[in-house]
Amino acid sequence: MIYSQEHSSIGQRIKRFIFGGEGFKKEVKHEIRLLLLFTLGFTIAFTWRQTIFDATSEVIKYIFHPNGIFSLSILTSVLITLVSLILILVFSKILKDKQDHY
Fold it and tell me: Helix, strand, coil shares of the chain as percentages rounded to 5?
């Protein structure tokens, strides 16, 4: 009897190690949701990429009147980069955890 209890205990530990417990299943579901979120977000961003670039190009043409396509493309990319960096800074400040949570 003692042997079967030890064997059962070892078997359960091995099963938990290989298949994980409830926490492991929750973490896998969380990671799958996160993967789907990133995938769909990237797909949306990729489809809107040209539209945003074209709209920003029109704003650059109106403001700066660049001479050529190359300068228009550079100015457009710089403006999109600057706006994106500002948004990253703003959202990182808004979503920042307080120090006492660590």
Answer: 90, 0, 10
